[in-house]
Batch of 2 targets.
Target 1
Amino acid sequence: MYILNEKEYIRNILVSNQKPAELSMGYLITLIAKYYFNNATDADSLSELVKKKLSDFEIENYQEYTYHKRIISICQGLFSENIDYRLKEREFVPIYIDEINLINMLPDDRQKKVMFTLFAVARYMECGGWINKKDSKGLSEIFKLANVTLTCAKRNELLHELYKNGYISFGKKIDNLNIQIELKASGETSYKIHEFKNIGNQYIANFKKGFKQCKKCGRVIKITGTNKQYCNSCSKAASAINNIKRIKKCRENKI
Ligand SMILES: [Zn+2]
């Protein structure tokens, strides 16, 4: 999960006391600990604070002892500076013109979408161009962001193709989980990623002629003369809702 403005995100969550389903417990604990880092004098007092905040949340089957070790290690990590205590407060992640030029040279849309996403994620990570994933689930998250649906074998094929042609490199162990790309943060900013969703579609809609994104769901749609804003399924859903409203209004008028 990639959150551009962590400060705003966790502030809203702390107000509502609701954990979004897509947010993992580990990330939630980290965000709360960072948010209150300045209020605590040491790791122990911070972990007490985090536990107290967590108990206010309505988390199904939450039992403090299950997370005790995790909370302590995150709080200690913050005080020992192994974990950066700052919350991200970014408005966007930039993609530079040199990067776009490189992406545009790739042979097909799939490779372009994946490469664009890799630039976005690597820049988000701020880790010297490295994208380190623990398991294949982390890698499928990248492909999902890139709007590229492929089997595991085909995903590896695509990455191997990028590797063979020098666009990406791997860690010592070549298992596709540690990918490094060369960020080219020079020249002009060509595109600003404001939302870490449908990143592959954002590329197509902005850099491939004749396409744009559905305003509602982010799917790619062909630009036609009719200036439509939504994809077929979103416009169908919208007209169905309008129909219901119309019928309701009709009935009310009759009464
Ligand atoms: Zn749509």
Target 2
Amino acid sequence: MIIDTHTHLDNEKFSEDVDEVIKRAKEAGVKEFIIPAADPKDLPRAVSLSEQYDEIFFAVGVHPTEIDKYEDKILLDFITHPKCVAVGEIGLDYHWVKEESDRKKQKEFFIRQINIAKEYNKPIIIHVREATQDSYDIIKSFENIKGVFHCFNASEQLLEFSENFYYGIGGVITFKNAKKLINVFPKIPKNRVIIETDAPYLTAHPFRGQRNEPFYTTIVRDKISELWGVDKKEVENITTKNAKRLFGI
Ligand SMILES: [Zn+2]
């Protein structure tokens, strides 16, 4: 069994056929799903999917690119919901943000959301894009937090947190230009690797460019099996155990 630990099933790209998407995944052995929060407007849909499906869990938070919409209430309204397993995705994304004041704002709300996660004893799902050093500094400044670096960016610096943090591996590892990740991958402790799609984005090769969906975690599993030199079932056992340990499911 595989858990897709990062899948935006609340995204409008799934509004037409989410039931079929889930069915297709389950038939391929992808049995549980975690919907991270991104845009606050989609959160009610994530909550409702989690109430409709035993296999679906969700996280609360505001994505760094949506930070202008931030309110504590967005997290606090659902953080005690029985299907809420984490705070995220939260973090820093400097790709489109060049102004120092905007970066400062992202940092401020990243820290604020980590504090809420701590208070409610939830792991965090971290999004880092072109902001490794600042993310590192912030995480380093906290004690007793745990979580996952979603869509792990192959930074060896972030591997320093592997005592309490996990590393989300998705379709990127199958890309032809994934050399850096392929090289770093063996350095991640096996008990810290979890599988994700980031659906509807970042579809694994050879389906790159098409809509991603949880079914494609099977391709990621196959790639990990090749890289670790262990059979597919063993990859499923290890990564599922890791995800359950992190998210308490
Ligand atoms: Zn995501």
